[in-house]
Model the fold of this input.
Amino acid sequence: MAQKKRVLITGAAGFLGSHLCDRFIREGCHVIGIDNLITGNLQNIEHLFQLEHFEFHHHDVSKFIHISGELDYILHFASPASPIDYVKIPIQTLKVGAMGTMNCLGLAKAKKARMLVASSSEVYGDPLVHPQTEEYWGNVNPVGPRGVYDEAKRYMESITMAYHNFHGVATRIARIFNTYGPRMRLNDGRVMPAFVGQVLRGENITVFGDGSQTRSFCFVDDLVEGIYRLLHSDYAMPVNIGNPDEISLLDFAKEIRQLSGERSEIVFKPLPVDDPKQRQPDINKAKQLLGWEPKIDRKEGVRITYNYFKSLPAEALYLQPKVFN
Ligand code: UDP
Done:
């Protein structure tokens, strides 16, 4: 029997990382998860601990990473990923994108592993080109509240290309657009859990600004499929992975409101600083190179996610955002 592929996933206890662990386990791989648990949650991977081919290391990837044995793939998904996290843990956000990526690349080089990094649509900042193609260089404010994340991801791409070009490391760069689904943190401030949490608690739905800003939401299963295909491709330049189905935040709030039987009111709050006005991936590259496009429409994805949040214990609905130190 062929030897199992050995896959390292950073941010394994997080939203995307945990779904990737599931996928690679299903593909018959030996999965090594790493997480420092500042925003991750062990409950997301609880079901994997009993498996012989899953191991977990509680570790901060901004520090030197030691893994014994061979590695075939590294997926670097560790990072705070919510604007309210960036404000509370700006330095960790920068470090995991910069030093964390560098450590993973050094490990990939030493192990001759192929590495995929989770970059972000945030490299486009508040985009002046719409929809966003991979060729667009972006419009980022480096010193704004989101700058710590945006610039960490831009540096991540830069150092990844440098290791690819200079050291010949096999690398892949996914630019991930807004993704949602089960295992998001209800209290993480992202719009999907924020709105669903509000309707489940019977509170008003808080739309920031006038709600004319747009996002394009991708269901997590589609994202995982795109990542899986990109990893197995031979394309080293960045590839957008997202769902081009664009919607204004006001219309999105109305869709979520319907789920609650229209009990919640929509109220307007100030727009956060540097909140991008529009965001929609051009996914022609992913279509051509990977034969990939999203399959799950928002109606279905939102229903699955809503049911997941609804199934959580009632106290989860009232958890305050984590206080970091
Ligand atoms: N948003 C909102 N109400 C909320 C939380 C977020 O209207 O309670 C808006 C936010 O201003 C942004 C969009 O939803 O325009 C998506 O926000 P999120 O933090 O999920 O992701 P990002 O801004 O990084 O795309």
